[in-house]
Amino acid sequence: MLVSARAESTNERVRSQQQRFVTFVEDVEKIEVSDVTFNHFVWFVSFLAIEGKNKSARPFIAPVRAWFESNRKIFSTKDDEIVIQNLMDGYDRLIESRNPQKVRTALPPDAAVKILEWGEREFIVVKEEQEIRKTRSFKDKDKDQNESTNKLKVRMEELRDVLVVLLGYQFCLRASSLMSLTGKALVFKNQYLTVKCVRLKGKSNEEVKKMTPRQIPTHSAPCAKRIVALLQKYLSLAEDCFDVIDLSTEIFVFDEEIDIKPSKLATDCLKRMLKRIDYEIGDLEKFTSHSLRKGAASAAFAIGAKTKTIEWLGNWAPDTPTVMERYVTDEPRYREKGAKEFFGWLLQEL
């Protein structure tokens, strides 16, 4: 129910969600012994609050409260009772108006360009270091092997940060999709950079597999072409660092980071890069992994991309207010250097 509601048009959303909710409650009331817990309803109402900009959830709050109070018998465990009480106490927070600017700040295109330039300079330095290592004698290699390996891994982490930011920005990717990218999911062929997401929020693994990969024509997207060059060098460096690289696994997540949430990993990559380029960013804490998506949407809109095209790029549901209301920041700075180099290809017929 929650996923299908994303496909509804704006005018039909509230009505269709209300009907789904009523039907769901009627079905549950027919069941004497049910596996349904309070969390099912919490998720549903939370979905209404987020997708409907909070307003569409408000008509449901009072009926839901009443229904919960009269049907506590289906929540038979103490844990459910605790969840019920906690969530009842938190409803005011649930429908509270949110300030998108307080949550995240969009990454401007000139910052993305500076990160790209920083990465290109850094790859040149790394290449020079690789050549030096190759010319060393075997005796020197053995002596400095540990030091050289550690230094190479530090370089790998720095270059990983660059690519995470650039690919997330260029393809307007969510953190979960971005950090799960594998070597096989990134393909450059016939002047097209293709991304095949391994994970996508709101879709099952089977649905993701059936989705058409997104392609960027590098002949009309200068920044994408430069990103391809960095990606190829990164994979080459990975082979030198780890001898063998498994292209079927995540290429931007190191072993010690496996248990860290993708959103935190991507956010940390972005913050480190903003510090490295000495970008005047104001409050660094306002930048998150979602700043990449918001920045991409804002830059694409600033140069004239259609809303439907931006929805396609960011994999947003068609005809949803999410893009314009929460992601697009209409300011002159998003039309500055780099916007067309990153997103000018969107002005072509897709």
How would you explain this protein's 3D organization?
The protein is built from 17 helices and 3 strands. The protein has 350 residues and is mainly alpha-helical. A 3-stranded antiparallel sheet has the order 1-2-3, covered by helices on one side. It is globular. Mean pLDDT is 76; it is low at 1-14, 50-54 and 91-103.
Strand content: under 5%
Low-confidence stretches: 1-14, 50-54, 91-103
Question: Would you list the SSEs in sequence order as H and E?
Answer: HHHHHHHHHHEEHEHHHHHH
The N- to C-terminal Cα distance equals: 30 Å
Average pLDDT: 76
How many individual β-strands? 3
Radius of gyration: 24 Å
Keywords, separated by commas or semicolons:
single chain, 350 residues, hpI Integrase, Chain A, 2 domains, three-stranded antiparallel sheet, 3 strands, globular
